[in-house]
Amino acid sequence: MNGSTLLDGTFSTLNIQVGSDKTDRIELSLGDSRAEALFTEENIQGLGTFDDPYTVTMLIPGVTVGATTKDLNNDGYDDLIHAQITNGYSVIRLNNGDGTFAAIQTYDMGIQATPSFVDLNDDGLLDMYAQNSSSSSFTYMLNQGDGTFGTRMSVNVGTGSSLYIRDMNSDGVNDLFGIDTSGRGRMWFNDGHGNFGARITSVGFTNAENIDFGDFNHDGYTDVVSLIDTAGDGTGYTENIHMSSGGTFSVSTTFGLGDLTTLTTGRITDMNGDGYSDLVRTSTDGTNIYTYLGGASGLASTAVTSAFGLSPVSDSYTQIVDINGDGIEDVLANISGGGIGVRLGTSAGSFTVGTTLSGLTGAFILQVDDLDGDGDIDVRGTTGSVTGIWKNNGSGTFNLAATSTITWGSLNVDLNGDGTLDAISSGSNVTQAILQSSDGSLHYSPSVDSTGFETNPTYGDFNGDGALDLMITHGSTFTSNGSVLIAEQLTQTSYDPATLSLETQADAQDALQIIDNAIASILDKRAMIGAQQSRLDSVTNTLSIGVENFASARSQILDADIAMETADLVRHQILQQAQISVSQQANLSLQAVLNLLRF
Fold it and tell me: Which end of the chain has a smaller Cβ tally under 10 Å, C or N?
């Protein structure tokens, strides 16, 4: 057909003239029918902008609440969860997957605390629990699999206990660990079905003010590090390492902390990349960093001491992370008087004198993360009025990539699928997205009218399209109508070539979906071919009638009238014969006259 290819799949659109007029044309289109066009995956990408918001009623107006979103029934959709802290109720609305929500469920947790969620019986579902230091009970409800929760159960953990949820005996399920007001360590082991056994008590935690966890000797059990206030008045501390044997603890190491005379937060991490957990603390005045290296027998009792050199504000502002990608942890810290200092770690657990981030005088750390999606650690900091983003050059050096004077929360979610972390600014009756590009520059989306819902935006996919939407509440209390505000993110859809894999069950399920999509696409193209063939048949019939009419007209124009022509022929023949007869008669008359003259 005029040189167009059909069988290699590249045939897409063809215009065919079907009449004498140049406007008499039909368009035939099949689309791309090659394998890479048929075997595709749908890719829905958020645009970072939001549709007009709508409200969802949750509970009694004016009650103090905590708000969050979780997928409670593993259907892939985020459900709405709010807590009436003043009376210990949890209010849940399950997501229908289309932006609407099921009826309100209310659960009485029995204590005034914001419920949290964790899998307590190893069934892959989030269970609900609550606990506070003024109550002696740890209360919980097991998820029934459909987003509803069973009967409330409780564990008596003692008033004033600091409670932690950890797998303490390496059986793969979460146990309870706490320290009571008498300085005793307590554990309740989980049987794997959400039932907690009798309390196991260990001594050696008297005046413990800070708890960290790690397997320091690689025996498979969770060990505990505690700061011990030796005098009970905050004037001096020692560090105790409590090695676990799977049920009880023994204090294997006790050591002083030099010039550490006030409580600082420890960091447990593998500082030197040897596979063992290490402990890092800073001195009270922030001038020194102490690294206690781990090994086969636990933590070393002697610290590797490094002078920070820039007087960080305190340990609580110190971030330990691999900055230059060498597998060894480094340090970022806020510096006294303003500024962000960088110190690079060594395999010996010490730190080299580094640099100070430049470009924004007096800034302090807000966030340390891979903000631009390039695989290394970046920094977001602020002076209080100006926020800056420092991009990591990959070697532990940074450059200031962007600044902003808009108040916004953490860059903690990729809204538009470009691989960089974005943020939400909420306040003054408007909410808007702050979108970050890979070069660190910032772009601001059109604002959403969030009057009455000025604070606390929460993310979740509420309409099942794969893009994150916003839930906005009114700080610590709801508005007068007891509602939350939801703004769905606008999206665009593309179809990318798919890679088929059958290595895992999940891959096989994805492959089935891809194949189903390809079959549906082929059926659609067959339907298109049938419809276009019908159009061609109709045009063929129309053209055939035209040809017949044209032939008739031509025949009428060109073909002779036989009867008329025969009559004319006869007439002419008669006239001709009459002329001949007259001529003969004339000749006879002349001959007769001549004969008379002879006589």
Answer: C
**pLDDT bucket at 144, cuts 50 / 70 / 90:** very high
CB 573: neighbour CB atoms within 10 A?
10
447 — pLDDT class (breaks 50, 70, 90): confident
Q: Which residues 6+ apart lie within 8 Å of 109 measured at CB?
A: 88, 89, 90, 115, 128, 130, 139, 141, 152
CA angle, corner 526, sides to 502 and 25, nearest 5? 140
pTM recorded for the entire structure = 0.71
Q: For the segment 458-485, what is each residue's pLDDT rounded down to a tens digit?
A: 888 888 888 889 888 765 555 445 678 8
The tokens of 374 are what? Answer: 């390039």
Q: State how far the Cα of 244 lies from the Cα of 225, in Å rounded to an integer.
A: 11
Alpha-carbon distance of 163 to 137, in angstroms, equals 11
Q: Which two tokens stand for residue 410?
A: 């953490």
Contact 305, 280 (CB under 8 A): no
In whole angstroms, what is the distance from residue 598 CA to residue 131 CA? Answer: 167
The first and second tokens of residue 327, run together, are 């597998």
Can you give the pLDDT at residue 413?
84
CB neighbour class for 535 (10 Å; exposed up to 12, middle 13-18, buried from 19): middle
Count Cβ atoms below 10 Å from residue 242 Cβ, excluding itself: 24
Q: How many helices (H) and strands (E) does the chain have?
A: 3, 42
* Residue environment code for 288-327, b if the CB has 16+ CB neighbours within 10 A, otherwise e: bbbbbbbeeebbbeebbebebbbebbbbebbbbbbbbeee
- DSSP-derived letter for residue 446 is P
